[in-house]
Records
---
Amino acid sequence: MTTAIDASTNPEVNGTGRERKLSTGSDLPYRVLLIVTAVLVGGLFLAFIGSIVQESIPGWRTVGWTFFTGTNWNYGAHIYGALPLIVGTVLTTGLALLLAVPVGFGTALAIVFLIPRRFQLIISSIVELLAVVPSIIYGVWGYLTIQPWLDATVQPWLASKTNGHFPFSGLGIGFGLMLGSLVLAVMILPTIAAISRDVVAAVPNEMIEGALSLGATKSQVLRKVVVPSSRSGLLGAVTLGTGRALGETIAMVVLLGGVNQTHPIPVSLFGTTGTLASEIANNFGNLSGAAGLGVLCCLALVLMVIIGLVNLSARVIVARNLRKFQQ
Amino acid sequence: MEITEQGNEASKQAQQAADSIPSMVEAIADKGPQTSIMSLRDVAVTFGSKVAVRDVSFDVGKNRVTSMIGPSGSGKTTLLRALNRLHDLTKGAKVTGSITLDDTDIYNGGIPTTLLRSRIGMVFQRPNPFPTMSIYENVASGLRFNGVKKKSIIDDAVEHSLKAAALWDAVENRLKVAGGTLSGGEQQRLCIARALAVEPEILLMDEPTSALDPVSTQHIEDLMSSLKEIVTIIIVTHNMQQAARVSDDCAFLLMGDDRAGELIEFATTEKIFTDPSDKRTLDYIQGRFG
Amino acid sequence: MTVIDAPRPTMTDDERRALIQSAARATYNRKVWMSRVFMVFLGLALIIALIPLLSIIRDVIGNGWRYVNWTFLSTPQAAEVSMFNQNAIGGISNAITGTLLIDAIATLIAIPISILMAISLYESSGRIMNAVRMYVEVMIGLPSILVGIFIYVVVVTPMGYRFTAFAGALALAMMMIPLMTIACESALRAVPETLTEAALALGAKPSRVMLRVVLPYAVPRMITGIMLSMSRAVGETAPILFIIGSSLVNSWKPLQPATSLPTMMFNYLFNSNYQSQKDACWGIALILIFAVFLLNLASRVIVARTQKGRS
Ligand SMILES: Nc1ncnc2c1ncn2[C@@H]1O[C@H](COP(=O)(O)OP(=O)(O)OP(=O)(O)O)[C@@H](O)[C@H]1O
Ligand SMILES: [Mg+2]
């Protein structure tokens, strides 16, 4: 779809297309201007990360190791065990991916290879529009449409079917892990589907005809040729979706419930919970405690590291794939 | 697929005509009796309202190489793709007339498309090995698509078809390497091996050497004469010398006044190139058409 | 691969063909059945995806359309909602003003920086610049709330904890710069090399080639990228929520607090006790989606136009 969305997964941008040096010609002012820009922008981004690291230092002094081992988080009461938030972040994102990835890939393949051509444009347009809809709107929809439905219909039904056993224990109030993951899944679904659609549509027709000419069925073509040859791009789609889910703030604030409460490690899909990002936003408005800002910056730093690790592993996997086929 | 009344009539007549020619004449002309494996009768391919090619009737001799020549746009590729039903996927494409494989109509004779395509292989203009598969997996892919699971059979078929494609010696020690790492000519031979592994009866080749250098082209031309022991070949080529060198029979297509391709002449290659019966064939052979 | 050592059945060509073709026939039914099942799954995935997506569109339009009227758009929000007249929530003009102000300043800051940055990525190669490019790409993926923290620390705090529209604009500009940079760089790279090489071969300075050849060609695509980045920023809530404060009147002053559409939505939804304000979120959502949609549509039209002109 758009440069804005798939920029980070677009191989051309990373390519080694042209090899021109800044040093061509006697074009000093131009050179200087460009170098200064690069240094300033690079510096700005370094300062960005640096300032969050710096602000977190008083936080680390306060929380120490209990930050990673403590199983309770209550900012207002100055209880800083971030483990429940880390678990909450990983759980909401994991559940959302579990729902959104298969559905997103399936949607992408269906749009390109299943539905009649005249519907392709309209359905891809819907998907692409929803990929750029701001997340606060998903929050509104989750809050005003889905929460009442979960509260009144889905959760009582699930509770009665399972007798309140894991993972549906406790009192369902609509808000919580279930609502958050569900809306998060819907939120990243268009992103995953839109990028995957572009990726599978770019598989050369020659490959598809090559497989067909060997007697492959349509599903064999898709499973054995189309999907394998687009796996880097599909991985990029998932990585982007993961990043969005991990960092989603506002929708999580309004959907996960339990604001200003103690967050234990979630054990039920009905339970309220918090994520790293949502707790930062929840408490930013009323900083409290000796290291009030510092502790939130610690959360920010952990979030940054998690997202960094996800991106890094995606890059490593892609690079390994490439190497494997360029021996 | 629609067979018109006239189409049926014409095909019967053509059949009778073919039958009535004493086989002796054929034998003399061609040094040996020939059985036909595929026959085309009044075949036409249309895309929407555009007729791409029409009026094509000829028989493809078993274990022979049949070439199709003609200027660009005369419908060679279109016709070739009709022979293994690759147009099925193109919206608005329609094939009329009759194409039979061993006397069974391939469009409405009840042969499932995937089984048909495993009997009629295709090699494309540009080498198209599957990029994520190793050399071994590329050759094995057709077998796997067709439900062959036993490793010993697959191993054997991979070796056999790589040998048949004259590629075995070059890749024997690197079967696990990606197919895309081979040179262009090697990739094309890999695609030939991949097609051969399914043991097709007919191999369709669409300008298989047009993307290759002269040496690789030579390799593939040499290959074809040995391949026809095991498979019938139909090749589209722009290169008239190539058609003359490799093929036994030759079909010449040309656009009519309305830009639709037509079969002008079908005969043994020798006859087409030495004594064509149509003036237009002669002109084309002598380079008087673009 | 143990092909050579494998027990090799000695088969004639005909036997081999018979073997493989019979295998193909034997598995045909299963294969076709599997294919159908797989395609059914794809269809199901599409339906499962469309249900919530269409539900969002339906809810936003269905519940939001009645808010789209001149009074709602042109009056600021009610300073206080009375218990006894809960529907008198006023309009959203203060938030529209704030959004326009913040986004305009942010775009004005981001455009020149992004274009220069894109040019410098385009004009250079080598390890350092590749690292810089990767760095810019990573910035796209970082959560926006972090940008909010950064601006809070380096702008809001030094100004004596003053919440301003300008601080919000800086945060949004920072969100836009990486997106715009990458988009503009790919616009530059889409310029055919034949155009630039000829000029460079004649000895033209790179800066002249950039100004006279590359930029004019790349401008439409750059505008597209800029508009898409703007459409991203319009709805951003997290980075500005705690740095712009709020304003109940239409304020065009950058150094005063402001309310924007997303922050108003957040406050109505989350901090209000009145159902009337929560419901008004649908109206604001519709207007926001409409803005995003327009920006995307316009960018597409530009792409289509230029492609038509060039092919
Ligand atoms: N999918 C299609 N839709 C519409 N028209 C088509 C399609 N495929 C081919 N044609 C038309 O059919 C005619 C024959 O094309 P074809 O590719 O078969 O020619 P060709 O003889 O193979 O030419 P070349 O030697 O250049 O490969 C052309 O006019 C072409 O435009
Ligand atoms: Mg052709």
Note: Chain B has a mean pLDDT of 85.
---
Amino acid sequence: MTTTPTETPAERAADLQDERLVRTEGVRGAVLAFRQRVRGGDLGSLPVVIGLIVICAIFQILNPNFLSANNLVNLTLQCAAVGTISIGIVLVLLLGQIDLSVGSVSGLAAAILGVGLTQQNWPVAIAIIVALVVGAAIGYLYGLLFTRFGVPSFVITLAGLLAFLGLQLKILGPTGSINLPYDSWIVQFATSAFLPPWAAYALAFIAAAALFFGDVRRASRRRKAGLSTGALSVTLIKAILLLIVLVAAVAYLATDRGLGATFLLFVLLVIIMNFFLTRTRWGRSVFAVGGSVEAARRAGIKVNRIYITVFILCSSFAALGGLLASARLTSASLSSGGGDTNLNAIAAAVIGGTSLFGGRGSAYSALLGILVIQSISSGLTLLNLDSSIRYMITGAVLLLAVIIDSLSRRSRASHGQA
Amino acid sequence: MTMESAVAEPTSATREPVLSLRGVSKGFGAVRALTDIDLDIYPGEVVAIVGDNGAGKSTLVKILAGVHPQDSGTIKFDGQIVNIPTPTASRALGIATVFQDLALCDNLDVVSNLFLGREIVHGVALDEEEMEQRSWSLLRQLSAKIPSVRIAVASLSGGQRQTVAIARSLIGEPSVVILDEPTAALGVAQTAEVLNLVERLRERGLGVLLISHNMADVQAVADRVAVLRLGRNNGDFHVADVSYEEIISAITGATDNVVTRRASAHAVDAAADNAATTAAAEALAAPSAGAVSEPLPNNAIGIDDETEETR
Ligand SMILES: Nc1ncnc2c1ncn2[C@@H]1O[C@H](COP(=O)(O)OP(=O)(O)O)[C@@H](O)[C@H]1O
Ligand SMILES: [Mg+2]
């Protein structure tokens, strides 16, 4: 092994001893490594971030109201419900599966909430719990059907789409539409709960501090384990950038109503799911099963349990999204969860960068993807274009995202990283 | 984990076998795949199993790996009679099997693959630092040439992937490692790398069971060769005092056979009277040509291993 005269292999971090490793340090190293990753087909969330910026720029040019605080606050509120559903879709996509019934399940949850609050006079909490439990039970059923009989998830959930749409209509009864009591807390939460600015600023600081100290702590653990650590300057720059972005966003939104509680809930759910996916055994198993079921099984992973938990989570997120949507619209009706809910949720996950082929993606794709979809929708509404155009454009963006997914997969293959 | 106590004391001949099979039989319907197999594996010893296609090598591996149990006969592990009904039971005993298709997750990095299914946790969170450090010390002990453990396994070469698969089998601290055709898909240099690795397993005091079609590999690393023929033991040799021809005749079942005739006569134009036998024997006979004539038998093995395993 060739070493520089100043350090012996023993002094060098355990992961940097191979002479073939190109070592670059500090900020420059971080930038170089990032560029190399992108070239190798590991695009991560880069395409969608660029896409989001382009979309915002175009709509801002076409209509100066697009980036107004008022419109952005509306946009965040519109994201929460379908975005929450999309988190579940990310999970099933990571396994290389699909759930086509999330729209119906969200509509069913809305119907349960509506009937529970008005006709059964349940307390709000009970209605919410019943809806979520029904969602979880549906996911459990899917999981059982999938693992016991090996029916493709595509077919199971297509059947579920119809069946639970029927159940939703049945529960809603002949009127087909129920107005939620406006003073119930869930409606208040979804329509008019906003974080006071001081709390939003505090959250921004907490997020940046968490990023910084998380990195510092990881670095010290790595150092203790004899591994290389990133430069402190990079960590600091990352945290400061995040702080600036968050504070600016909060300050801008505060000129209108501020940060909506439902959007915050959605973002928190994304962060929590990201933790579970990247930092726990369960999450590692999800990626393993998505990469190679057989390898996961032979490694002793209880594959069926992974499938079942993911289907349960997906349907539960769908139910939660349905609750948020109906609370925001203060009604549960035949059209709850209908229309483009299903496809928007699936499209958001894919546009956000989660691969349709399984094993690649991140919880953050739900957030980024739904921001793209709602930006398009909101921009076109501002331009007074109706839903026909919106559908076509969203369809085109979805197609683009799938093409990027397939291309980056091919690029990974040609760079030997398939 | 005691990965650090890598170098074991030299094996003494008087030691008990770590794995010992007596009268093991296995049938599939009308086919007697294995009949009365006896086999001993000592710690710090590499035992090669050779035999023609259909001799029962894969069946033997699967019995030890817990894919399917034997019909009769006993298996002793560390002197105790054991049952191996499931793959988990096999692993729990301390038998690590590296199947021919490796079973790695291409989308995960080396560390994740090494610790897949037995991740080290720190509370609920994965202890990535501990796992990465242990990965490095394990790979160093095996002198594995892997530049980074944080790259996806898909970007590694065939030999490196085989190395990862073998290293992974060591995470559970097994006392026996079974390698099914570890060099079948590899080039010359990578084969040498894996053979070095096998020797390092022996230095660590592990019992190694090596299935191979390649007589050159067998003669390079094995201490003993057990020959299977038509599901029965047909010879157990110390590699040091057996000739290539003797092994071949044990495999084919005759001292006077196509292979030995060819060898002694140096005949290049031996009559292809029995096309099937000749082809099969040639695959074993010509170590240098092994890579060329191997695909057929290897494919056969690869397929039956996979169909078995997917259950
Ligand atoms: N699952 C099975 N079902 C039926 N027959 C099998 C099965 N597995 C192996 N056999 C038979 O057992 C015999 C030994 O096969 P195998 O162990 O694969 O041989 P080898 O690996 O030495 O080529 C063959 O005749 C094969 O056809
Ligand atoms: Mg075989």
Note: Residues B 57-58, 301, 304 surround magnesium ion (ligand 2) (CB under 6 Å).
---
Amino acid sequence: MAFIKITSPHAHKPGNTGSVMQTVLLATLPGIAVLTAFFGPGTLVNILLTSLFCLAFEAAFLALRKKRIAFYLKDYSALVTAFLLALALPPYAPWWLIATGSLFAIVIAKQLYGGLGYNPFNPAMVGYIVLLISFPLEMSSWPAASPTLSDGAQLPGIIATLQQVFLGVPIDGYTGATPLDLLKQNQSQLISDLYANTSAFNQGRWAGAGWEWVNLAFLGGGIFLLYKKIFTWHAPIAMLASLGLLAALFYDGGSSTSSGSPLFHWLSGATMLGAFFIVTDPVTSAVSVRGRLIYGALVGALVFIIRVWGNYPDAMAFAVLLMNFAAPFIDYYTKPRTYGHKSGPKSQA
Amino acid sequence: MRKVWDIHGGVHPPESKTQSNHCAIASIELAEELVLPLSQHIGAPSTAVVTVGDRVLKGQLIAEAQGLISAPIHASTSGTVTAIEQRPIAHPSGMTADCIVLKPDGLEEWIEIDACNDYKALEKTEILAKIRGAGISGMGGAGFPAAVKLNPRPNQKITTLILNGTECEPYITADDMLMREHANEIIAGALLLAHLLDNPSEILVGIEDNKPEAIATMQAAAENTAVEIVVFPTKYPSGGEKQLIEIVTGKQVPSGALPASIGIVVQNVGSAFAAWRAVRFGEPLISRVTTVVGESLALQRNIEVPLGTPIQHILQQHGWQQENAARLIIGGPMMGYTVESPLVPVVKTTNCILAPSRQEVPEQPPAQPCIRCGMCAEACPASLLPQQLFWFAQSENYEKLREHDLFDCIECGACSYVCPSNIPLVQYYRASKSEIRIIDADKQKSDRARVRFEARKARIEQAEAEKEAKRVARKIAAEQAKRLADEKKALAGPQGTATTTSSELADKASTAAKPTDVDPATELAKLERALSSAQSRQERATASLTDMQREDPDNTARIESLQARLKQAQLKVNEAEQKLGSFKAAQNSVVATETIIKQKLTSSPLEQLQKSVDTIGKRLTTARQKLAEAEAAGTPTVEALRQGVAKLQQKLDTSERELVEAKAATSTASEVATEVNSDHNKTLSAADIAIEKAKAKAAAQANMSDTEKRAAQLTSLQSRLTKARERLAKAEAENNENIDAFRIGVEKLEVKLAEAKEDVKEKA
Ligand code: SF4
Ligand code: SF4
């Protein structure tokens, strides 16, 4: 009897890419819960729709590329993309917006590059940016967080939600300026006044009603992933550190031209979602430890720069895509020193 | 406690050691047949010194080492040699190899061995010889002959001897058990090795902290000795030689260098034990401790087993449920390799036989795409970027693979172990490494060929340059000689006496004009040979191309290569023709210059003209003849020849015209002389007339020397012919491809000789 010939190693650590992705999905749950609590069922509908579209596009393209559909769908990467896109989009976004975003994310940014692992850009962020540039109006109408709603107003119900998403029937008075918008538009008030006078701030504790909790929830999910060793701390911590550092540098004592405190930046917009779920996307970031530190730090810096001096209220997606471009260069210059070698690759390159 | 260092990366696979280290090292029944491969070590296989039918005793040398990096093999028991043949052996490639097959007689009759109570009384070379003679090679895995490492170069002072008792691979407990049961002998072995290495300042035994019993016994045995037991946390692959060195010394072995280069020698504990037995008791390495483990076995433990025992025999003794096992692994689960046949024997490096059940080592799920998660990079003990290596291996970007230090990969498998996408990374690295090695070997070969080719080209170019230089030198010399002669004539003219005879001058000129070291005839023959061999090569190439096109028109690759060959041959022919042509032209010009000088010095203008008309006529005849031949044969030189003929014709016409004119104006010789020499643009003065007095004498002398010259030429031609004939005979005997060229050379020489003989006869 002949035995099979297999090369070493014969042992394998339990778990696979699918289970890694599942863990990531699991870690988004607290964030989803908080988003739903503060902004209503829009987020859930977003997730449902992006998941549907993303999986459909993925399956269709796998079929076109003659790949085993079930095998590749089981890596859950399309679902992760769907979740991230859904969480980045404003809740109650119209269905066609979601479909377009999913199309760009899965087909253009991922499958056309060769599928999972071959995409140079984060698919969810590509989908998001395409929408932001093409449909700025729809993309910037964020709902108001529940504590800031005027008296008597309520979060949209499920019927109203579906009507808005599918039929375009607008929900009355559901949008509101996000804390990032407010700070950007602030002309004359000291930060302390702004905080005192605006409901978006005075209903919150640190950095804007609702948003601070959303960010804390994503931070919690991120810590869970760190604990699960899904990724290392380098990129997210570097990103938060550089963002905080720049914010502190330009805080300006809270004057009327202040760009906001570190805490404000940490707990606003997509900071924590970005830090733990997007910057950590292994495929599109740098590979080595040093590389990831640099990558994260630069994302943080770009986020701050675009938030403060750019034209868009939030900057996560732009910052990440720009750094996706730079990742190969970072890799090139941060190759670790191999055992028994005197220096890294630069001496040989 | 000694400081220990941490290494980068590493993984913690389940240790799975308790199932085999719960009981003492056992032994099993002798197998019915022992199979002893001639190559159980790294290096040259040994050569059998027994023949089929020989009776051998236990411990008897049956195969001897070949060269320095090799190891002898001894009979593991007494019995008869029943075969020396190819058998499957335990090797990753699953190959068969020459083995000595031994049928034990069960008597266990030892050969006489010589014990040694005090090795310190021996010369080191004697101890080394004992260790080498015992056939000890690294027992931890690779099987490097131990004696080689123990004999470092004199300029490498060894400061640290490390015994490797790490055993970081899961499942394997052979060294663990050996240390528990033979601690004293291992320590004695360590001291012995240290003695051989001129007592390094540190003698360390590295053991992972998951072997408390072994640590305890080893520490007890090492008490009051120079040996220090170093304990460090369990982590795979701490037992890799380079990793162990870093852990216990903090130093890294430079890439591509041996540990000895930083003053370190590492030996496995098993090797130290075996070395001690060999020196102290004279026992060769004929058995080893092997872990027999895996869930398809009813009994899992360590056994001391004679080398050559077939694995099947061992497994059967341990209640093997064959149907339950999908693979058989030699070594551990991380670096071990599978064997297809259970008939392969235990050899010196077999530290573990792992027969896992299907559940224990399930089949690998299919690989998913790399998500660049970086877990592999975190696990890599060599600080490589396995995901990048994988990427480049897939795209066969060998340049990048090298840049990313593929060859520093120790194939430990840590990266594959952690990869969530189940990518068999190590497999890619192994394949790429061997691919690159092949490419390198090819490149080396072609590099050598290129160097040869370039050297040849340089030689040819240099020869050509020299020739050119000589040509120029000749020209200058000729001109100088002529000027000298002119001056002389000018001087001699008015006084009517010549201090130097013109013939002397002529000789001088001709010596100056002749190439000093290259015989033009030889050179010519060489070039002609080259041309004809190039032509015959071209013919052959054409023939094989036509054949190919007829017989296998679809084989485009081959046809293309043949076409390329033909093209090359054509180029060669052209080149050879060119060279020959230019050489001939140069020769002609040399001859012409000489003749002209002589003529000028020795003949009257009229005679000169007559002569030149004659020569040109002669040359024209030969040229015509050649042209006719060429036309008949259809050789590509026809055109050139035709041109040559036309030119000669022209020259002849001019010369004849000049001659007629000169004859008409013969009354004033000096004027005629001026005229006829117009093409040389040298004004002959009235001295020419004065020179006529010396003419008769000079002519006689010139004639004389001419005869002599011819005689010399004849001799040289004869000797050349003899030589050429010899060469031809040799070429014929060897069936040399230049045979045609040689033959043509000989024929030409024969013709020339005949001509020369005629000439001499005529003159005489
Ligand atoms: S562990 Fe596997 S999936 Fe992750 S980066 Fe390495 S090769 Fe790619
Ligand atoms: S097999 Fe090579 S690349 Fe993989 S972890 Fe080991 S040394 Fe690193």
Note: The first helix of chain B runs from residue 124 to 133.
---
Amino acid sequence: MAHNPARPLSPHLSIWKWGPHMLVSILHRATGTALAIGGGLIFTWWLTAAAISPAAYAIFYHWIVDADPSSAHEGAQALVGLLARLVGVALSWSFFQHMASGVRHLMLDTGAGYELKVNRLGAILTIVFSIVATLVFWAVILGKGN
Amino acid sequence: MGRGTSLGRVRGLGSAHAGPHHWWMQRVTAAGNLLLLIWFVVSLARLPVLDHQAVVLWLKSPLAAVPLLLLVISVFWHLRLGLQVFIEDYVHEAGGKVACLLLLNAYVVVAAALCLFSILKIAFGGVPA
Ligand code: HEM
Ligand code: HEM
């Protein structure tokens, strides 16, 4: 029989083709887990430090928000600062991605959006949203610093 | 008669009927997270700086402290439910599963308690700005 490439593939356990909906499915899990552990710990550190003292808050601020360039060990400091920025970008993107795919989950729960094209478009839109929102978020933050 | 195979019924190992509540609370807290986290991100962005004084003065207002308390409850509840499913999906051996779930509960209870106490301490004026 002639093979029609437009037909859906049968979901054999080891034979499947990547699609945007699969990517968004696993990203929802990965970003939720990253937020739950990384985001949860940083958020708890922030509030607890604020409630302890200005000095404790300064340690949090120094490590997470902005390393003071005038402090000692400049090379190591710059590296840590860069790592903190990377974690910050990864967590903010995770937040926007999880938020968008979470809202998509809630819409799918109503029974809407299972048509192949609509489903695919929804999955792609969550990724577009998370990238754009992350760029805007950091443009605002970096704009403030100046 | 009940559901499941006759063997399962005899053993009393059928559905615990606790799943829908878990699923529903994941949705309810998702809606809570959505509202409260948008409020939180916008509020932080509107503060001119994020130093100690700015955060303490901000949290002295009930209109900041109360939503933040609710946010802590919603987010930690949501992530506890979410990570439970994650663990149950990937840790199959009974001992490891129980250990992971205990660790998860310990993390959530300790972190949420620290957050709630810290917000209240600042809100009630326990931290000089
Ligand atoms: C052979 C292809 C696949 C089959 C038959 C399959 C089957 C399933 C089933 C039956 C569920 C449970 C459904 C539910 O919770 O409502 C599920 C959930 C899930 N699958 Fe797949 N799956 C496949 C491929 C994939 C791929 C490629 C990924 C990503 C790498 C993936 C990621 C997930 C995730 C993260 C969940 C949890 C979903 C959630 O709770 O939102 N799956 N899968
Ligand atoms: C922005 C608002 C949020 C919305 C709308 C949202 C929505 C959702 C929904 C609907 C689910 C269930 C997915 C399913 O049944 O497969 C879920 C799972 C989850 N969420 Fe969220 N969420 C939000 C924020 C967060 C935050 C801030 C965290 C962590 C701090 C988080 C951590 C998780 C985790 C760990 C899971 C489990 C993932 C899995 O089992 O695959 N969520 N979220």
Note: Residues 67 and 82 of chain A are 9 Å apart (CA to CA).
